[in-house]
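testing teh design pipeline on a random one, pls ignore if ur not involved
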């Protein structure tokens, strides 16, 4: 099967039989209201048609309690995922996501150096439900949704470039589609035009930081998740210091 035609649900089976005992190593934040994990690539956030164990299922096993899903990241990507422990917390976080007061910062590795070191991308996204893919267009169509993100160049190697991105909207496959639209898809993301897949079917897209107001104290919380161990991520690790 051509890897460029694979659905992301079939990409990277590394989390398929992941024992719940390892999930504790992924916890980056927890209190009475919330728990957050640094999701490895290849594990779906929620159950999908593959039947593979999801992060949501594993997190509930680890927590020994019901957890509420607030947001998602793509299966082949990695990074911060936060769950609510009660209805008050899910109501607060859901409202913050809807009001776009949650700050979402991602990292991506790309092949081509952007023409500008800082730029705001604005497109109109159309989702193809059957292909589980989105297309970023320059012109608005009746069924499209506006998609905006800011990026800056964080560092370069001989072969790749590291981008830091702030999502201003939250659309399906937004970063992947928008970077593909400027002919600079995420490393390993054959679904969006990168020439070769990564060996483990991951993509070099990482949900790095998530900032929100605590549901009870209303104090600003910023969660930070390190990129997974990988030669390319490791090369850029010193570029991630604030």
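output:
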């Amino acid at each position: 099967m051509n890897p460029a035609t694979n659905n992301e649900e079939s990409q990277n089976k590394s989390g398929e039989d992941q024992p719940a005992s390892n999930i504790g190593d992924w916890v980056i934040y927890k209190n009475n209201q919330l728990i957050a994990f640094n999701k490895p690539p290849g594990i779906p956030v929620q159950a999908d048609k593959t039947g593979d164990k999801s992060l949501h299922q594993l997190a509930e096993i680890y927590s020994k309690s019901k957890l509420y899903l607030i947001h998602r990241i793509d299966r082949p990507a990695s990074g911060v995922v936060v769950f609510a422990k009660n209805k008050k917390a899910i109501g607060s976080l859901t409202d913050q996501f809807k009001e776009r007061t949650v700050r979402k910062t991602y990292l991506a590795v790309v092949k081509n150096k952007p023409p500008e070191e800082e730029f705001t991308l604005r497109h109109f996204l159309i989702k193809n439900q059957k292909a589980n893919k989105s297309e970023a267009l320059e012109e608005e169509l009746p069924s499209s949704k506006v998609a905006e993100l800011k990026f800056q160049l964080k560092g370069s190697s001989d072969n790749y470039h590291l981008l830091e991105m702030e999502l201003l909207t939250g659309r399906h496959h937004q970063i992947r589609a928008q970077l593909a639209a400027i002919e600079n898809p995420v490393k390993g993301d054959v679904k969006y035009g990168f020439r070769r897949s990564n060996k483990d079917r991951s993509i070099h897209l990482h949900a790095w930081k998530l900032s929100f107001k605590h549901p009870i104290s209303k104090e600003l919380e910023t969660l930070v998740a390190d990129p997974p161990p990988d030669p390319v991520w490791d090369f850029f690790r010193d570029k991630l210091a604030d």
